[in-house]
Each structure stands twice: as C-alpha cells, then as structure tokens.
Amino acid sequence: MKKEDCVFCKIVNGDIPSNTIYENSEFKVIMDISPATKGHVLVLPKEHFKDIYDIDAETAGKLFQLAAVVARALKEVLHCDGLNIIQNNGEIAGQTVFHFHMHLIPRYEGDDVTV
Ligand code: 5GP
Ligand code: ZN
Fold first, then answer.
1. Which of 96, 98, 104 to mutate to test the pocket of ligand 1 (most atoms within 8 A of CB)?
2. Taking the model in full, what pTM does it have?
3. Which ligand lies nearest the alpha carbon of 88?
4. Which of 3, 5, 45, 68 has the fewest CB atoms inside 10 Å of its own CB, making it the most exposed?
5. Which ligand sits closest to the CA of 6?
6. In total, how many domains does the chain have?
7. What domain range includes position 42?
8. In this structure, what CATH number is given to the domain that contains residue 32?
9. Local structure of residue 97 (DSSP, 8 states)
10. In angstroms, what CA-CA distances link 77 with 43, 61, 70?
11. Tens-digit pLDDT profile for the chain (115 aa)?
C-alpha cells in the first residue's frame, strides 16, 4: 500500500478529520473511530512506518514513553480500572491500518470486552 493511501497519513496531514487529544512534532494521539471502550485512543508517529519491523527503535521508544504518559492521563480522567496496550503487526495479527500505531484501551469492571 502506498503512503498516499494511508488513512493515518491523511489524518496527520489534516486531509481527513480526527479527534486529536494530543500532538507534538513527532506523534499524534487520536480517539479510535470505533472504540472498544470509552477512552480508546491510538498513539501514532506522524512519520509513516508500516509496523514494528519498519519503525526505528528510537521512535518506538519515544512512542512508548508518550503512551505511558497518556495511560496515566486516561486513568486520571476516566477512572478506569485497568488498561490494555495492543499493537498489531500484519494482517494475520489483526492489523488493518498499515501505519504503526499503539492502542490504549481503558478497561472497566464488568465491561466484558474481548481485546
Ligand atoms: P489495527 O487493527 O490496525 O490495529 O487498528 C486500526 C484501528 O484504527 C481500528 O481500531 C480502527 O477503528 C481505527 N481506525 C480506522 N480508521 C480510522 C479513522 O479514519 N479514524 C480513526 N480515528 N480511527 C480509525
Ligand atoms: Zn501512514
């Protein structure tokens, strides 16, 4: 798939809208369009990397540091009881958008969600 066809690149470029909760020069944190639970967000680099095999270790490290900060913010704001961090690589693993991203999925007692 070409970068021009990438939905997250389009979001980063402002070509399609998103609910952005945080961004800096390198990363963007957006609400998932189809949330598994209340507060399901995606953390993504602005640069296009396909997956864990494509992203460089430094960017992946910074992204995880940001994810940890966002996780704490979600807990503060939403009072969730737990959180899943999920990161899919390849179609077989459930990846549907081939621009590296990390899911932060707040969990609530009794939410009965399978992730
Ligand atoms: P994956 O299955 O690749 O790990 O996750 C892709 C995620 O991107 C899915 O949870 C899906 O709901 C979300 N998604 C797909 N298209 C859009 C979009 O246009 N905007 C937003 N905010 N999320 C999207
Ligand atoms: Zn992209």
1. 96
2. 0.97
3. 1
4. 5
5. 2
6. 1
7. 3-107
8. 3.30.428.10
9. S
10. 17, 25, 10
11. 667 799 999 999 999 999 999 999 999 999 999 999 999 999 999 999 999 999 999 999 999 999 999 999 999 999 999 999 999 999 999 999 999 999 999 999 999 999 8
